[in-house]
Amino acid sequence: MTHHPSISESGLGNWHDAPAALGAALSAVDTPALIIDLDAMEKNLTEVHAVIQTAGIRVRSHAKAHKCPDIALRQIKAGAVGICVQKASEAEAFIEVGVKNILITNEVIGVRKVERVARLAAHAHMGVCVDNIVGVHQIGAAARRHNVAIDVYIEMDVGHGRCGVASTTEAIELAQAIATYSPALVFAGLQAYHGMAQHMRKPEERKQTIQTACARVKEMIRALNAAGFEVNAVTGGGTGTYELEAESGLYTEVQPGSYVLMDNDYGKNTPDIDTPTLKNTLHVLCTVMSINPSHAVLDGGLKTFAVDSGLPRITTPGWSVKSCSDEHTEIVPEPGATPLKVGDKVMLVPGHCDPTVNLHDWIIAVRNDKVEELWPVSARGALF
Questions:
Q1: Same domain, yes or no, for 195 and 47?
Q2: Domain containing residue 134
Q3: Is there a single domain that holds both residue 216 and residue 67?
Q4: 258: helix, coil or strand?
Q5: Are residues 245 and 119 in the same domain?
Q6: Within a domain: 19
Q7: Do the domain assignments include residue 302?
Q8: To which H or E segment does residue 328 belong?
């Protein structure tokens, strides 16, 4: 059989080489590329952590937003007690770089998946969420097999209408089941996250929604206490409401994720006057690959941007995004728009940061238009 040399053997490099070199100018970055403005990210991180920590509770940053160990380590250095993830395979990428405290803010169902969590619990303090008895029995059996202890949070439906128990009776039954697996399982508290509240546009809407959620949490705590179960932790919240949970007197930690990135959808929220205004940190750099009298075409499309929350927004004055296809984004000018030519590079703000990051292998961290760091998106595609 004829041997065909690999890309690396032929001297052509690796398909996954970073699209930039350290110290390079932003204009020299190959495209399409995911860009983070370090100054903006550091400002957002510092200000959000300060609000939460001033309230006397913990920050547990949600790493599902960025899937990047380099960012998680910065969040922990800035005071986060640990991170959240959504999948066991996501957790692995962060444990490999030394993250020691991880909560999977999701149900983990399936024998292979709970086995993975139990193995990870030998290397880090692990927590999971449950809202059904199947989950309790699966994670409990796995923890016993591996002789580890795993924190278990009962997930509440506080109004989002997705996962979570709705009644105190269900929660008490789950707490009782968790107790039968002691010491392999530890009832750690409540997961109380209202996802829809994060993107309610008006501050008063978000405030009312979280007040209603808090009322449900109070009721749940009373019921569990009456049944003999101490609730030591209530965790939840996100970038859109973190200050409300932090000031509630109920939550012991908050889980902001998008705050270190931000996106076009979060930009549509009217901020509360008492909280920091967060900057767009995450952009995608694209190159103009074609020019026509009526429009221009960029070299990134649906495989570059997630569009579930709308099309990306171009920052070049006078231009707007008309459409995206697999490998192209079409932009159109208004009268007086900044002229563009083939080869020009432009920045766009994605509609939704989390799934956009998951499309990229690298984050290019930039300061003063120079590449300062290159960060692999190590948990990209971690779906299991």
A1: yes
A2: 38-261
A3: yes
A4: helix
A5: yes
A6: no
A7: yes
A8: none
Looking at the fold, whether 144 and 257 belong to one and the same domain comes out as yes
Residue 14 lies in a domain: no
Burial class (CB in 10 A: 0-12, 13-18, 19+), 202: exposed
Distance CA 320, CA 314 (A): 6
For residue 221, the domain's CATH number is: 3.20.20.10
The predicted model gives 193-212 an average pLDDT of 97
The closest of 85, 91, 126, 132 to 109, measured between CA atoms, is 132
Query: Cα(first)–Cα(last) distance of the chain, in Å?
Result: 37
In 158-273, alpha helices (H): 168-179, 203-226, 242-246
The contacts of residue 58 (CB under 8 Å, 6+ apart) are 52, 80, 81, 252, 253, 254
Please count the other Cβ atoms lying within 10 Å of the Cβ belonging to residue 13.
Answer: 9
Distances, alpha carbon 116 to alpha carbons 41, 61, 62, 93, 122, in Å? 32, 22, 20, 13, 10
Q: Among 216, 232, 261, identify where a domain stops.
A: 261
Q: Which two tokens mark 341?
A: 């030519």
Helix (H, G, I), strand (E, B) or coil at 207: helix
Nearest-angstrom CA–CA distance, 68 and 377: 5
Phi first, then psi, for residue 120 (nearest 5°) are -65, -30
Residue identified by tokens 């009217």 is 270
- Residue-wise pLDDT for 131-184, tens only, equals 999 999 999 999 999 999 999 999 999 999 999 999 999 999 999 999 999 999
Helix (H) or strand (E) holding 106: strand 101-107
For residues 155 and 179, membership in a common domain is answered with: yes
Residue 14 burial (CB count, 10 A): 9
CA distance 286 to 305: 11
- Residue 43 belongs to what H/E stretch? helix 38-54
Burial class of residue 201 in the structure, from the number of CB atoms within 10 Å of its CB (0-12 exposed, 13-18 middle, 19+ buried) = exposed
| Domain final position from 232, 261, 290 | 261
Q: What is the mean pLDDT of residues 203-222?
A: 98
